[in-house]
Design a protein that fits this description.
Number of strands: 6
Strand content: under 5%
Helix content: 55-70%
């Protein structure tokens, strides 16, 4: 029973809105605290040697987490620093310790998938009604229309952030699809896979859509039984997706919206018009703008609370940084970027060095996660994800646990 509750809390934590508070306490952090406490019910106690092994195996990953929550302490925000420590460091330690066997491992994967499925159904409802219920809990309700298309964000801060989350979930679904022997479960995974892809396109996050799709194609091309994989993918996902998406575009768009505007989104990606420049944040110019805003503090950045504002034109002030690495540089400087890149490299090394080469690629969780993390780190050159790292943290910890299962408790560094 404790395992089911633990898996439920982890799944809920992965999608719960970060902006909902009770008595000024972030509910997401409360859920993370319960996840940590349930570790004691599953394990009975925290074994120091297990904690030490987890920290040493992924030292740069933990350093990046610690660097972030200490940043709040540096500016005197000690309460937020403690909350960040609970919701990141202690939460991740819990996952590394509590997942003792493959049963718990697969329970957590299924929990992530089930919550993603529910969220994606809500995402389609949000698209049809063009109303996000969760905006009622926000101080600054977010609504964006791109080329006549309403961009969904569900429980996340921004459509781009939601798109990145969906990209992570797609790889988890791909792994379960390739390893499930139950026809009923496979049909469920195919259905949720299709829902996730519909939601991905409804975020209208062009960079994320292109890169995630590219790596999905690379994945299915490199797996064994490629023809069967692609046939099933077309039969159960791509063709139904085209039908559902066209139905939504044609039937529920406003008078100025048609299916052509959907595809215009991708055409705009490659043209040089004003729409494309503003939507993509003019990534190349952004490097220059961020450098100008940070050149007084290039080593340590402008601080966790710094706000970015750049006079793009007489009428337009740029106040967002859509490139993750530039966002890190602006707030944490070269030191922050170095710590972040080392963290990403350590995660890639974990998944690559601990692959089980005695089994087929389609059976190896770390092979799927290696491609997923690689695509994730690439897409961060075009988007930012600072406000939403929960699912990323969960999957890194699950990779650590999977590596232990495959290597008899040892981790190859």
């Amino acid at each position: 029973m404790y395992i089911q509750i633990y898996a439920f809390l982890v799944g809920l934590y992965s999608i719960f809105p970060k902006y909902i508070e009770i008595f000024s306490i972030n509910v997401s952090n409360i859920i993370a605290t319960f996840v940590f406490l349930f570790t004691f019910f599953i394990n009975g106690k925290l074994i120091k040697s297990n904690i030490k092994k987890a920290i040493l195996s992924l030292a740069p990953f933990w350093l990046n987490i610690i660097y972030r929550f200490l940043a709040y302490a540096f500016v005197g925000n000690y309460i937020e620093s403690i909350m960040q420590m609970i919701s990141t460091f202690m939460f991740c330690i819990s996952l590394c310790i509590a997942v003792k066997n493959k049963r718990i491992f697969h329970k957590l994967l299924d929990s992530l998938i089930n919550f993603a499925g529910v969220l994606c159904i809500y995402g389609i409802i949000e698209c049809l009604t063009q109303n996000n219920f969760f905006n009622a809990f926000r101080n600054d309700p977010y609504i964006e229309i791109r080329n006549g298309i309403y961009r969904i964000s569900t429980t996340f801060d921004h459509p781009i952030v939601y798109a990145n989350y969906l990209g992570l979930i797609l790889m988890v679904l791909a792994f379960k699809l390739c390893n499930s022997e139950s026809r009923r479960k496979k049909l469920k995974y195919y259905f949720i896979y299709g829902l996730v892809y519909v939601n991905l396109f409804l975020t209208v996050s062009r960079s994320a859509i292109i890169i995630v799709t590219l790596f999905q194609l690379i994945l299915f091309h490199t797996l064994e039984q490629r023809k069967g994989n692609m046939a099933n993918l077309c039969k159960y996902v791509i063709f139904p997706f085209i039908g559902i998406f066209s139905f939504i575009s044609l039937l529920f768009g406003d008078q100025n919206t048609s299916s052509s505007s959907v595809f215009q989104v991708f055409i705009d990606l490659f043209n040089g018009g004003f729409t494309s420049v503003v939507a993509l944040g003019d990534r190349f110019s952004l490097f220059e703008w961020v450098w100008e805003a940070t050149k007084g503090n290039p080593i340590f950045g402008n601080g966790i609370n710094a706000l970015f504002e750049y006079q793009y034109s007489y009428y337009y002030v740029k106040n967002s940084i859509e490139v993750e690495y530039l966002y890190t540089f602006f707030r944490f400087g070269f030191i922050g970027v170095l710590v972040q890149v080392l963290s990403f490299v350590s995660v890639l090394k974990l998944t690559r060095s601990n692959r089980n080469r005695l089994i087929r690629k389609r059976d190896d969780f770390n092979y799927f996660m290696y491609l997923m993390f690689l695509s994730y780190f690439v897409v961060l050159f075009a988007v930012t994800q600072q406000t939403e790292l929960r699912t990323y943290f969960i999957l890194v910890c699950l990779c650590y646990n999977y590596s232990k299962f495959m290597n008899g408790g040892k981790i190859v560094n």
